[in-house]
Design a protein that fits this description.
The protein has 11 helices and 18 strands. It is of the alpha+beta class. It has 2 domains: about 190 residues, Barwin-like endoglucanases; about 160 residues, Ribosomal Protein L25, Chain P (Beta Barrel), CATH 2.40.240.50. A hairpin with a 4-residue loop joins β10 and β11.
């Protein structure tokens, strides 16, 4: 998406994208701060963030020690994080204060950015096609090819293209409208959904849960996408005069699609992007699906960031009302672009959906770097 996407994609850009500020093109600037400079730090409970950090550390430990942490390079290599990962225990706030140094993140003189939210939705489905269960949920087609562009040049870090081979040429894959009209003959149908609108929202989020008519449930995660451009249908509905800009939200878009079934498919097909899934066990129901880092996402303690700039696995302190606290960079998203830009994971269920749907706020962001890295970085540094 959700999609600089390595393991799963999580996107909540159905209505967010047209409302976000332009991409920040100014150089990344890190300015050393103190924990007293983090608004509300002394009152925050960072227990969930510590647990989230520890889960991310398991992913970092599996990397080669010299593997780069990614982004602009300010977070060093995996080896730079192993000592703090080994020390990750005890009282959470004290652990972070002892082992890390905070840096304010800005893009040139711009210290504020946009913060949105996403959640884990649920759909109803059946393993057989019958009655209302008529919408196929596809697994990854065998002819879909994903190309990681960073393998060709570091300037394409976090970027990829998807398509299929036609002779010796990589050509675009079918669009959402083409898939709706003709299906995908070589892709496995995992199961059948009873609500195309609910499935569309799940595709926007990039992962979720399935409740089966036959009994039981499971998670489904991002397996790939068709490589077509994403279009926020909130923008489409505004352009058509169907919704007023100030009224665009997850709830208002969902309601419009439900009440306008004749137009709903065409509006959804304005978004050419299409997501393919893979089935997974539910596992720990209190946690979310795996993010791009590979760790299970933690409600209100996991953050989607721009991997071209920032490092997956690092802690980020966000001050963006109503969210103020420490979150771990564990996911990415196709519309998450910029130095001061984040998408906050709110978890599973109706309450999480409401919180994610209402989350759109200006805010500031800090990164916490291990003290040894901070000593090398100094008081302030710009990254082109």
């Amino acid at each position: 998406m959700l999609f600089a996407l390595a393991a799963t994609v999580v996107c909540v850009y159905l209505w967010r994208q047209p409302l976000q500020p332009p991409q920040q093109n100014a150089p990344l600037r890190l300015t050393q701060a103190t924990f007293n400079d983090l608004p509300g730090w002394a009152a925050d409970d960072e227990t969930a963030a510590l647990a989230s950090f520890i889960r991310g550390c398991a992913m970092l430990a599996a990397r080669a020690p010299q593997a780069a942490m990614g982004g602009k390079g300010y977070a060093g290599m995996a080896a730079d994080w192993l000592p703090v990962c080994a020390a990750a225990k005890g009282e959470a706030r004290g652990f972070f204060e002892r082992h890390f140094t905070p840096y304010r993140i800005s893009a040139g003189d711009n210290r504020s950015g946009l913060f949105t939210g996403y959640y884990e939705p649920q759909i109803a489905a059946s393993h057989t096609r019958h009655d209302a269960y008529q919408t196929p949920v596809y697994g990854l087609p065998p002819d879909l090819i994903r190309v990681d562009l960073s393998q060709f040049s570091p300037r394409f870090e976090g970027e990829h293209v998807s398509g299929r081979l036609e002779g010796q040429k990589l050509v675009p894959y079918a669009s959402r409208a083409e898939i709706d009209a003709h299906g995908i003959g070589n892709a496995k149908i995992l199961f059948w959904c009873d609500d195309p609108v609910a499935l569309f929202f799940l595709q926007i989020q990039g992962s979720g849960r399935v409740r089966f008519a036959e009994g039981g449930s499971e998670r489904i995660g991002y397996a790939g996408e068709n490589g077509k451009p994403y279009t926020a249908i909130g923008r489409v509905l505004i352009a058509e005069g169907a919704l007023a800009r100030e009224n665009v939200s997850l709830a208002s878009i969902r309601a419009w699609l439900k009440h306008n079934p004749v137009r709903a498919q065409a509006v959804m097909e304005a978004d050419q992007s299409f997501i393919f899934f893979e089935e997974k066990p539910v596992g720990d129901a209190a946690l979310g699906n795996q993010g791009t880092l590979g760790a299970a996402l933690t409600p209100r303690a996991s953050l989607a960031i721009d991997p071209r700039i920032h490092a997956l696995g690092a802690p980020y302190y966000v001050d963006a009302a109503p969210v103020r606290g420490l979150l771990i960079g564990q996911d990415t998203g196709g519309a998450i672009r910029g130095a001061v830009r984040g998408d906050i994971f709110f978890g599973f269920g109706d309450e999480a959906e409401v919180e994610a749907g209402n989350m759109k706020a200006d805010g500031t962001m800090f990164v916490l770097l291990p003290n040894a890295l901070a000593a090398k970085l100094g008081k302030q540094k710009d990254f082109p």
